Amino acid sequence: MLAPGVAAAEGTSGPALDYAVTCQGCHRADGTGTPGTVPALAGSVGKFLRVPGGREFLVRVPGVAQAPLDDAALAAVLNWMLERFGRDDVPKGVVPYAAAEVGRLRRRPLTDVEGARRQLLEAIERAR
Amino acid sequence: MTDERRWLDRLCEGATRALARRTSRRSFLTRLGTALAGTAALPLLPVARAATDEHPAVPDDAALHGEVGDPKSCNYWRHCAIDGFLCACCGGSENTCPPGTEMSPLTWIGTCRNPGDGKDYIISYNDCCGQSLCMRCRCTRTEGERPVYLTMKNNDLLWCFGTQSRAVNCSVAVVLGVATRT
Predict the structure, then answer these.
(1) Do the interacting molecules here have an ipTM over 0.90?
(2) B106 touches chain A (CB under 8 A)
(3) 3-class secondary structure for B7-67?
(4) Which of A29, A49, A88, A93 is placed for a possible disulfide with A5 were both Cys, Cβ 3.0 to 4.6 Å?
(5) Which residue range forms the structural domain that includes residue A48?
(6) Measured between CB atoms, does A20 come within 8 Å of chain B?
(7) Is the residue at A45 inside a domain?
(8) pTM (two decimals)
(9) Nearest chain A CA: its distance from B180 CA (Å)
(10) Which domain, by its residues, includes B10?
């Protein structure tokens, strides 16, 4: 009995494996999170790229910035997440995250995560 | 129809007479009373009724090649990074919660190598929540664990998030898939 929603026998590797081992425990395999406890990625993460500061925020949030992954692997996971959970929301022409960019941003931690997130969500709402 | 009834009548009559010859009414009443009282008292006995109400699913070991070890053992390969009481000892199994508990949707995830086939498997350590600590089969293993400031990679934390109750009972080790290197 394998848990639903996860690739089984073929094996999981690369960013999908990094997501499973590093992020999925809280954000879940389908990116739905847990309302009130863990923000959903599905249908949400891609929208952050529509507003100024959103691209930086996605790297600077503690779970991403502090993930035990090197910059290249972290950039790959972010791009994988945007493809998987934000395909319909990412604006056209967005450049994928690069290792150097991720390395620079993750070294500038957010001091007010909730506040920054709230402002971005309001901006996303206004931009609709 | 009539013949059939006669045949049935004869059978019943014979059985009743045979019973009457062998037993007294009093002994019948005694046995009936014992049976009734026994049936009524059976649910009160401390048997694991939960096991019949909600039988744990068959472990998924059949899906793995070369499965070895005992899920009730701390040394069991899936438990390489577990910290808690093994649900297999608490009325559940290595991947199902005991009846009356709720599996936490939030979990911490690692990989363990199955010595049976030499493959690395992605393992989800979910806490089962809603009852007090099981206190059986305590197992603390720390392979791949990170310090507590890396909360998502630390298994000292109570992981009953997103559940109705924050009380942790035991932990399961669910196989999510095979991890392969690129």
Answers:
(1) no
(2) yes
(3) HHHHHHHHHHHHHHHHCCHHHHHHHHHHHHHHHHHHHHCCCCHHHHHCCCCCCHHHHCCCC
(4) A29
(5) 14-127
(6) yes
(7) yes
(8) 0.71
(9) 5
(10) 2-44
